[in-house]
Amino acid sequence: MKLHLLDVAIIVLYLLSTIFIGLWYRKKARENKESYMLGGKLLPWYKLGLSDASDMFDISGTMWMVSLCFVYGMKSIWIPWLWPVFNQVFLMMYLSRWLRRSNAATGAEWLATRFGKTGSGVGESHMVVIAFALLSCLGFLAYGFIGLGKFIEIFIPWELVKAYVPFNVAPQYVPHIYGIVFTLFAMFYSILGGMHSIVLGDMIKYSIMTVACIWIGFIAANKLIGHNLNVPNGWYSPFFGKNLGMGWTGIINEVNQKIKDDGYSLFGLFFMMMTFKGFFAALAGPAPNYDMQKILSTRSPEEASKMSGFVSIILLPIRYSLIVSLTVLGLLYYNEMNLKDATGAIDFERILPAVINNFLPVGLVGLLLAGLLGAFMSTFSGTMNAAQAYIVNDIYLKYVNPTASTKKIIAMNYLVGVVVVAVGVILGFFVKDVNSVLQWIVSALYGGYIASNVLKWHWWRFNANGFFYGMLAGILSSMVFSLLIPSGELLYWFPLLFLISMAGSVIGSYVTPATDMEVLKSFYSNVRPWGFWEPVKQLVMADDAAFVPNKNFKLNMFNVVVGTVGQLCLTILPMYLILNQKLPLLVTIGLLAIIMMILKRTWWNKLKDY
């Protein structure tokens, strides 16, 4: 164990600060429901953006991305399109504004603005989005929980602890014990302080991570001087053909098996499927989790757009500085690391903790550990806050006790927070590894979510029944697919999953009456979406001659393309910098400068125009 007194002191100080934050904001959070769930909608966009970025800077995802960068090199920048990461560009350009105009507190509450509060299918649509939200939140809790446990196990070997623990633990469950301990800290401050404490905790964690990432970047760049990385041809290039064309035979033979297990050998096909799915996923808007809660917490629609744009700017350069730095150190010292898990198998997700534990100086180890523990806590607390909002706001206050006092609402939030964490931890015991739960969330569960949530923005005839049947068909199909199909192959079944969900959406809409026209007119005039809204548009314009419909589809899509290229530049820029790739770095900086000038004119200056 390579934890010196200074490292331990930094970690303990950070953990104590989380307790202090929870106690400090306890009174503020107890003012009312909106203050607890959404920070009273008083927080500025840059604070929420920084908090949202911190939530995405999670420990499990970072371990996964380091393993990807190690194996695939520059081509690893494309693989996070599985989420897809470019959904932040769609949100930035227009969808965050559309969402924030609803003034809702949760995604389920938003449905009332689209389908009305009463009528055929409204109750069912309400319940199915809650079910999806809770499934995804619990999936993310398990994902974060298992990643944290694997991470801590490297630094605190069980042999040093087991003598002080009054029970025996099987080797495969050691990460879960560590996960439980640190989960309790995250639960404490987020349950007590609500959104206010979550945002402040995220800001502190982001500051720690920024210092640590810059420090480790200098170390990696200096270690690389005079050394060449032993990597296959194509590792330094982000471009690819039909096949991955990257063989590790004779370098690190075990990596070939990792590529085979991931299913990325036919990289061209994988990329096409990932982009096809990602485009529709981005059109659907944010899933009902912490990202949506941050958008709904902003002060105005314009600030919601700014917040979503800010996320990529402050997240990607810092995060990828850490990822490529750890990758460089992992490649330089691969033969000196032990990447075997408790069962004796090579686990490339252990590169991140192994490098930190063996090759970084005192002080930086403490900072990185504190920051990565904070990364886990911010993801965990943001996800838990979203789950609390759905259960308390959309079940308890809607169906159980609509007249509950503020005191009862806060007490229910406390109880729900504890129960949600407990269930997430229990699910974590059944998770094989970070990649398997990630594949299930992004390829299966989100695959079932997409069709209904694209149609809700863009087609006037889509109704609550269509939403319910489309979501239900998608979620049930995703469950079946995840049982029958290996996790690495789920993405290739997305078109079938999408068609099943789309069929449920269209058939469900046409066999039941259309949504009440007054509801549709209110939604259309308030949100101002583009798409297939002609009958509603005509009625709105007949009632209000001054109404100007949204004709910005082409401009929005142009901005999305430009913004996605900009996002890729922000991702690859720190990689070129630390790897000392001078010409590609200069090209990237020049391209980024051009993109910024374009978006200043086509997006920033027009935020209030559409």
Helix-strand blueprint:
Elements lengths: L4 H20 L1 H4 L3 H6 L6 H12 L2 H14 L14 H14 L6 H9 L6 H34 L2 H4 L12 H51 L29 H9 L4 H17 L6 H7 L4 H32 L18 H9 L4 H37 L5 H23 L5 H25 L5 H21 L9 H17 L6 H11 L6 H10 L9 H26 L3 H21 L8
Helix pairs in contact: 1-10, 1-16, 4-10, 4-13, 4-14, 4-16, 5-8, 5-14, 6-12, 6-14, 6-23, 7-8, 8-10, 8-15, 8-16, 8-17, 8-18, 8-19, 10-14, 10-16, 10-17, 12-18, 13-16, 14-15, 14-23, 16-17, 18-19, 18-20, 19-20, 21-22, 23-24
Explain this structure.
The structure is a single chain. The protein has 610 residues and is mainly alpha-helical. 71% of the residues lie in helices and 0% in strands. It contains 24 helices and no strands. The chain has helices at residues 5-24, 26-29, 33-38, 45-56, 59-72, 87-100, 107-115, 122-155, 158-161, 174-224, 254-262, 267-283, 290-296, 301-332, 351-359, 364-400, 406-428, 434-458, 464-484, 494-510, 517-527, 534-543, 553-578, 582-602. It is globular and about 70 Å long.
